[in-house]
C-alpha cells in the first residue's frame, strides 16, 4: 500500500510539472485556444494527458466530478447538484478518502463512509452506474439494479454495465474517492 501511495504522489507531481510546462508554453505567444463549447459543456469535459515521464494517461476532472478507484481500475462519477453531493465534495476537498467496501447482492458495491452526509432518501429503482447514499453514511455504487430508498449522489460516466460489473464485483475491500 505504501508503494502505491508513493507511486500516486510521483504521478501527481509529474502531472503538475507537465501542467506547468504546458501553461508556460501557452504563455510564450502561441495561438490562443478558442472553443465553441458552452461553459456547461466545458465543465463536464474530461481531458486526457499523457506524461512523458510515466507514459500513463491522467484525466483532469471538472468541478462536479469525482474519481473512484477500485483496485487497479478507476472511473469518473458526475455528481448531481444536491446538498448530499455538495457535502461529499466538501469532504473530498480536504483530501482523498479510502473507505472499506463490500459486494452486496451481486449488484452493488457498498462503501462505509465513516461520516454522515445530509440525505433526502426517496424510493428509487437504480440501474448500473447509479451512485447513491444509503442511510446517510454509506455510498452504494450499482453494477446492477435494485429498488430501495436512497439519496442520489451521481452517475458513473462512460462505462457500460459489463465494464462496471468487472471493476466493482471483484474481491476488493477498499475504494478511494478523490477530486483528482
What does this molecule look like?
- The chain is an alpha+beta fold and 180 residues long.
- It folds into 2 domains: 1-26 and 47-60, no CATH class; 61-180, Cyclophilin (Beta Barrel).
- It has 4 helices and 11 strands, in the order H-H-E-E-E-E-H-E-E-E-E-E-E-H-E.
- The chain has an 8-stranded antiparallel beta barrel. It has a two-stranded antiparallel ribbon with strand order 1-2.
- Mean pLDDT is 77; it is low at 14-58.
Summarize the structure.
By secondary structure, the protein is of the alpha+beta class. The protein is built from four helices and eleven strands; from the N terminus they run H-H-E-E-E-E-H-E-E-E-E-E-E-H-E.
**Multimeric status of the protein:** single chain
Number of helices: 4
Mean pLDDT: 77
Highest CATH level, the class of the largest domain? Mainly Beta
Specify the structural class.
alpha+beta
Dominant shape: globular
Number of self-contained structural domains: 2
Distance between the termini: 19 Å
How many strands appear in the DSSP assignment?
11
Helix residue percentage: 25-40%
Please tell me the CATH architecture of the largest domain by its name: Beta Barrel
Amino acid at each position: 500500500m505504501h508503494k502505491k501511495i508513493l507511486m500516486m504522489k510521483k504521478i501527481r507531481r509529474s502531472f503538475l510539472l507537465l501542467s506547468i510546462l504546458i501553461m508556460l508554453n501557452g504563455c510564450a505567444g502561441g495561438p490562443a485556444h478558442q472553443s465553441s463549447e458552452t461553459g456547461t459543456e466545458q465543465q463536464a469535459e474530461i481531458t486526457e494527458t499523457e506524461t512523458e515521464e510515466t507514459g500513463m494517461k491522467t484525466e483532469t476532472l471538472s468541478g462536479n466530478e469525482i474519481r473512484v478507484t477500485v483496485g487497479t481500475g478507476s472511473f469518473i462519477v458526475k455528481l448531481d447538484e444536491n446538498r448530499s453531493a455538495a457535502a461529499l465534495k466538501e469532504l473530498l476537498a480536504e483530501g482523498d478518502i479510502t473507505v472499506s467496501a463490500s459486494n452486496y447482492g451481486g449488484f452493488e458495491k457498498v462503501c462505509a463512509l465513516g461520516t454522515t452526509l445530509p440525505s433526502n432518501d426517496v424510493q428509487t429503482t437504480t440501474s448500473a452506474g447509479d451512485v447513491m447514499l444509503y442511510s446517510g453514511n454509506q455510498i452504494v455504487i450499482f453494477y446492477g439494479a435494485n429498488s430501495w430508498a436512497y439519496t442520489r449522489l451521481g452517475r458513473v460516466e462512460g462505462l457500460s454495465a459489463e465494464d462496471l460489473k468487472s471493476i466493482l464485483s471483484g474481491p476488493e475491500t477498499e475504494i478511494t474517492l478523490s477530486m483528482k
